[in-house]
Amino acid sequence: MYAIVDIETTGGFAAQHRIIEIAVVFHDGEKITGHYQQLLNPRRSLPAFITGLTGIDAGMLADAPDFSAIANDLWDLLEGKIFVAHNVSFDYNFVKQAFAQENKDFKPRRLCTVRLGRKIFPGLRSYSLGQLCEARGIRVKDRHRALGDAWATALLFEQMLREDRTEEIPRAIKGKEKARVLPPNISHEQYRQLPTATGVYYFHDKNGKVIYVGKAVNIKSRFEGHFTGKSKVSLKSEIHAVSFEVTGSELLALLLETLEIKRLWPKYNRSLKVKAASWGIFAYSDQQGFQRFQVNKIFPGVKPILTFSSHAEAWKKLLEKTSELALCPKLTGIQKTPGACYDFALGKCAGACCGFEAPEAYNRKAAVLWEEGGSRAGERFLIKDRGRNPEEEAVLLVEDGFLAAFGYIDQATDLQHSGEVLSFLKPVKRVVETQALLQAFLPKLPQSRIIPLAED
């Protein structure tokens, strides 16, 4: 037995919004056997655009029961039935959330008529409910009302049952996990074409615009992971295409992901937008020849030796290294004193601030901070890493701690002849986030994979 469900809600997110109408049309696999419909009071204000879309206003909901009042009856009606909906993730997540608030764990088998439509009725321009029903000669009564849409979906599903010559419905019910978690607008053919290699992948909306960029050691596996568990329903429903770029190198994939997010600013890549590296530790030499450090905001044209996403992180690192390396807190900008720093009297500072430690000796300790995290400020070198296939290698050009270019070469190429290699590399825009990533990765790389370049 199938339960074809449609809901109307106060908004698009199950965790934040509420159901205002639910309808269920029951089907035994041959014919419609009955239906259920109920308006629901969401116990919150109803947005005007929802009223404009559905025709449901606050007055219609004032005397309606809330979900808790119908939960037990609805549970009994749906229990044991296959949950069918057009873009099933949307309806299911709202119903699941509503039941969860009543301490009921709702986990039915599910079918999506969007995905089934692509398989059983291929070649259509659109698989929206309205367009699909029009193409199949189904008249939709009371569009954007739960019962009208549920009834139309039931008639559509009935046609699918009759014309399913390749047994797509039994296969979906039998349930490969992958089939259940794919976004409704992504076909199994698109999924099968995803590589198991390392690289960067892109989610596109219906207009082709990139809405998410990710990096993965296994692109296909990572794609699946997006849609298991508590995935974003809005993201899942917006994805209409997936593209990718294989890198072979995990480090290059991570750097390329960062560059692409900075270039495209996809709407679902929130973390990098918020956590962009905007603070740094800067180094300079004073008139006496002592190496000094200070924390400051990052500005164009001024290069820090280390980058951080917040002032607190940068300050914490400087405090740690000052203590660990026995640096003078006055020369690292931590203390502001007219004479010797306070640490000198405690025996923690060798006296660079008051003439007891020579610049040469002090700077040898300070040099360790320059190398912290592999910043390599002032250096220019190549990193060789795994390529896209066994016959090639990925090559990354690092300048002043930033990724400056990348490309691929034949494994037989001699990197000591760097001039020829550099001509094959693709230049990239320098962004501070790549410096932070390289700081983390470089200490882990074998020295054999780092090739210093002579100064021009």
UniProtKB/TrEMBL annotation:
InterPro entries per the UniProt record, alphabetical: DnaQ, GIY-YIG_endonuc, GIY-YIG_endonuc_sf, GIY-YIG_UvrC_Cho, Ribonucl_H, RNaseH-like_sf, RNaseH_sf
Residue intervals of the GIY-YIG domain: 196-270
Any one GO BP annotation for this protein: nucleotide-excision repair
GO molecular function: 3'-5' exonuclease activity; DNA binding; DNA-directed DNA polymerase activity
Domain of life assignment: Bacteria
CDD domains linked to this entry: DEDDh, GIY-YIG_UvrC_Cho
One GO location term (cellular component): cytosol
Family matches, as Pfam families: GIY-YIG, RNase_T
Entries under SUPFAM superfamilies matching the protein: GIY-YIG endonuclease, Ribonuclease H-like
PANTHER family hit by this protein: DNA POLYMERASE III SUBUNIT EPSILON
Description of how the protein assembles with itself and partners: DNA polymerase III contains a core (composed of alpha, epsilon and theta chains) that associates with a tau subunit. This core dimerizes to form the POLIII' complex. PolIII' associates with the gamma complex (composed of gamma, delta, delta', psi and chi chains) and with the beta chain to form the complete DNA polymerase III complex.
Purpose: DNA polymerase III is a complex, multichain enzyme responsible for most of the replicative synthesis in bacteria. The epsilon subunit contain the editing function and is a proofreading 3'-5' exonuclease.
Name assigned to this protein: DNA polymerase-3 subunit epsilon
Source species of the chain: Cyclobacterium xiamenense
